[in-house]
Amino acid sequence: MNEHTEKNIGQSQHGLKEIFKRLSRAPLAMIGLAIVVVLVFTAVFAGFIAPYGYAEQDLMAAFEEPSGAHLFGTDEFGRDIFSRIIYGSRISLQVGFIAVGIAVFAGGFLGAIAGYYGGKADNLIMRAMDVLLSIPSILLAIAIAASLGPGLFNLMIAVGISSTPNYARIVRGSVLSIRNQEFVEAAKAVGSSDLRIILKHIIPNCLAPIIVQATLGVAIAILTAAGLSFIGLGIQPPIPEWGAMLSGGREYIRDYAYMTVFPGLAIMITILALNFLGDGLRDALDPKLKR
Amino acid sequence: MFKYIARRILFLLPVLVGVSFIVFSLLYITPGDPARMVLGDQATEEAVQEFRNKEGLNDPFLVQYGRYVYKAIQGDIGRSYMTRRPVSDEILSAFPSTIKLAALSMVIAILLGIPFGIISAIRQYSLFDSVTMIFAMVGLSMPVFWLGILLILFFSVQLRWLPSSGFDSLAAMILPSITLAAQSVAIVTRMTRSSMLEVVRQDYIRTARAKGQKESVVIWRHALGNALIPVVTVVGLQFGHLLGGAVLTESIFSIPGVGRLMVEAIKMRDYPLVQGGVLYIAIAFSLVNLLVDLVYAWVDPRIKAQYK
Amino acid sequence: MEDKKLLLDIQDLSIHYVVESGTVHAVEHLNLSLAPGENLGFVGETGAGKTTTALGIMGLVPNPPGKVVNGKILFEGEDLLKKTEEQMRSIRGGKIAMIFQDPMTSLNPVITVDKQIAEMVLLHNNVTEQQALERAEEMLELVGIKRERARDFPHQFSGGMKQRVVIAIALACNPTLLIADEPTTALDVTIQAQVLELMHELRRKINTSLIMITHDLGIVAEMCDKVAIMYAGKVVEYAPTEALFNHPGHPYTEGLFNSIPDLDSDEEELKVIQGLMPDPTNLPSGCTFHPRCPYAVEACSKDVPPMVEIEPGHFVACPVRGKPYLHLGK
């Protein structure tokens, strides 16, 4: 039994290693990875990097154009936009990663059950996922966020639930393809429990497609969250959220365009980096698509 | 084929019941008392209770849901807290703009995405391919609302070429449609390209070349027909994204569509209107998906055969 | 090599693929010829370069990564490698037709089979579409498929039937040369025999020359006049079928024969050829077979052995094993 488990995990680790080796040969993916690493660093050490506090108002210095003192200028309350964007990375990354975490966990759980047990459980779960999929995901997120009310945690839940069906589908598909392979049969034959088989054998083997989808999913989650904040459904002021900052800057677009340009740029670069990384991962995972 | 359509429409019903269940549940868990919302803060406790009894708000969850479905079948999905008009009326009057916007964007996505995807694939690794792919990646990563603002900034504020709001003239439609279409153009381009690259490697393409067929015919007749099959699916899914994205786009360009209505409703805590909008858009999306599946069956004989 | 006017004469052909891990010498200094009306069996392991040679004749080597780097392919006396793409198009399908290995994937899934045959007819004959479709139905009947099925899509046919359709396409314009690339490998054994029988019969009817690419010596014995044995990009033995079967010259050919199970023999085990095909990006020096050859001497790793005629029409590229028969030839 142990031998099987180890062999199995060894297999998937070998796969991941191979994938990262291929990934390292894709320049765009490496750029994406570098940007993501920088972003995570920025988010963690925002307090040290940002020259001002995110809520630090200075009405005397409102609407200042970008300068040495205020790299990206100041907003209507005289808050330093550069600092707010730095702090904003915390919110976006948190929402992105935790929302995807929720979706991967919930979707993975449902997908694994549907794929492993098949039959009625499969039917019930997947029809429910179909229903969720029939609502455009940003709308579903809007509907959930509207019901739960504003706030970071609610935003994460809304975005997380709205992307759960995707992961359920992927995991179910992987489980179906793995379920009848020999090492799973062998584990069953020696009397391993279903839970053990799912956790030790099946999940490690469908990790790769989930990682790819999750990377792209973080990008989508950040975009969705920013969109919700943009229409007033996400984070409440004064907490700096890129989408909310954009929304706030709209009023002053005619005179102070920089107020909307920089937060937008921050979102785009983040998403671009995650997409590059996700794309690279997918190619690394499926080399037959690349010649 | 008729039987297939009938069956597909029949399959639609449980999905709609599911959507209505989600929408109703969300309404149910929404904090705040609808009676208070409607009657206002000044209303007496008795009046609130009377309203709750009259509207059946004290009944058990499933009874309320049953009533909701029963009414929904008759087209009644509640009244707006703000205007007291039926939600259906509010939404249906706003729906044409949203559909127009989404459809226009869809057309842009198809007209740009498919040709660019094909040319990129045919000239893989060329300058054209690289530039297209970079643009597609940027388009994919561009937040809809930011793109809209940038376009307004440039074409309306700076150049004063196009209006920054409204949706009543062709000129007014240009910026919103481009804004909403950008991501879909990127997705359709990428999908067309990868599908095309996959197909040109197939054996039957080699067969066509071995017949002595011209390269252009090989591409347009043999490769394209097969390459577009998965693109059809993506295009269908894009329509859902477009309907969702319309919420943001309409709000940026002040277009009187369902999206803006919903955003207004969110700000006013007018939840029946929000949920009604979700329900209507889900129905529209499901119908489009049905249409896509029909197109799918039409272009792919292997699928058509299953439903004869 | 022969006095008769040759239909196909490949001289010193080299085709390379440039891939990440190096240059694959798929075909290396290959010589091969075929007289009109002749049937040539083209035998070798997977990866020996048989399909690449065929694609080279068709002018369909995928480029990139493939490239014809050297040689001539004389067809009816003219070098195909010097033809323009447009000239090649009229030869492809018209004079030289090819049947590919896997019928499951060789037909376009979204076009009905009659149109796929008619396309070939339209390209090489001055006919109307109606006439082409009529010809397509004739061809279907010729390969044993009912006319009524002309408007069906490929997925509605079984594997064997699909290969019949592929054959119908290939023969629709009465080609002078037909190249069949393992036409039965992907089929069930019972179907294989039927398809081979059909090809044999049609070939005689249409009177076309045939290059039958295969790794099955049984098929060669049944269908071919001559055999070329290919190993690692080169032809190592070329002989009339009977001569080859009676006294195989090259150690590799011998190995191929030994690895066929023989019911009459008492031996318990099959004699397999030791070792593996060499890495095509890094071929052994001298004779490419020498690391696996039981008869190899030191010289084998140094010089590339020339083709030696050991009996009339029987050429072997092996100085060691070729010698015993030398007296027969001269």
From TrEMBL, chain A:
Domain ABC transmembrane type-1: 89-278
Subcellular location: Cell membrane
Keyword annotations: Cell membrane, Membrane, Transmembrane, Transmembrane helix, Transport
SUPFAM superfamilies to which the protein is assigned, alphabetical: MetI-like (SSF161098)
One GO process term, biological-process aspect: transmembrane transport
Bilayer disposition of the protein: Multi-pass membrane protein
Residue intervals passing through the bilayer: 26-50, 97-119, 131-153, 210-235, 256-277
GO cellular component: plasma membrane
UniProt gene name: gsiD_15
Name of the molecule in the record: Glutathione transport system permease protein GsiD
